[in-house]
Amino acid sequence: MYCPNLPSSKGPPAPRSYVFSVVKDQVAEPPYAERPVTEAPTRVGVVDDVKAPVTHHAVSTHDDGSPSLLHLVELDSAAHADMYASAIQLYSKTFTESYELKASEVTHMVQMKKYKMLAMLDAARTQVKAIAVIGDIPILDHTYCLLDYFVVDEKHRGGGFGAKFFNILVEYMRINSTHSIMLLECKDGLMKWYSRLGAMRCPIPSSVCDPDANENLAAVESYNTMDVVIREDGRFTAGDRLDQNRLKMVMNNMRQYLHSYCQCETKTVINEEGASKELLIWS
Questions:
Q1: Which residues on adjacent β-strands are paired with residue 185?
Q2: In a domain, 5, yes or no
Q3: Closest Cα partner for 115 from 46, 42, 171?
Q4: Domain of life here (predicted)?
Q5: CATH code where residue 131 lies
Q6: Residues spanned by the domain of 43
Q7: What is the 3-state secondary structure (H, E, C) of 91-160?
Q8: pTM for this prediction
């Protein structure tokens, strides 16, 4: 991975900056301390015609208690070519399964304003430490978005960095989008981790998006759908989060708009221990 270069002072105007104090891992809706901030831009869903990176500056701590400055930036594939190339390289080496989008497809989705590419840089702004790819879900007036891909570079894992990145990401979306709820999908082993960060398991069956999965469904690892509240703005109720029909409608729209899956079949599988599990099979 090579080091990206930020736009020089002769480039576009400096982006708005938001400063948060993130000194420890937080749970649920983290009580970020906002210091004087310029007014947040008004945006529609995920669409953003940004020229300079929209940036958050977040203060965290090292193990010895000393401060560590982190930068969360929203990247445009053309305007921020060097940084974007480093971010998409991290994506390419992490997400290698056949059913996952190729790097070129992700870039196309960013250019089409269906995806946001967010990158966490180190204090010197020379390394991409983590990325998040967030997709718009148009139905219900963009109430929902999807955290489609989320990864911390292996060189920077440990010490709670992933949790800090996730919390800053949620706060970024609260300020820089109109979405109210962020969906995510994860394997069984990650549900506890996301739950500690405020995510709730959605009451719908787990999903399988592998086109070859039908050959041996019992052995395929499925993905659980969880949600995180970005803001309480009256566009949903506690009952809405538990409404299976509403959630399936949102999932159908999400699959078609972001993943080009047009069909869904519900199947019940039985594993080697004899336990049954209902799955949503997308194709």
A1: 225
A2: no
A3: 46
A4: Eukaryota
A5: 3.40.630.30
A6: 17-282
A7: HHHHCCCCCCCCHHHHHHHHHCCCEEEEEEECCCCCCEEEEEEEEEECHHHHCEEEEEEEEECHHHCCCC
A8: 0.77
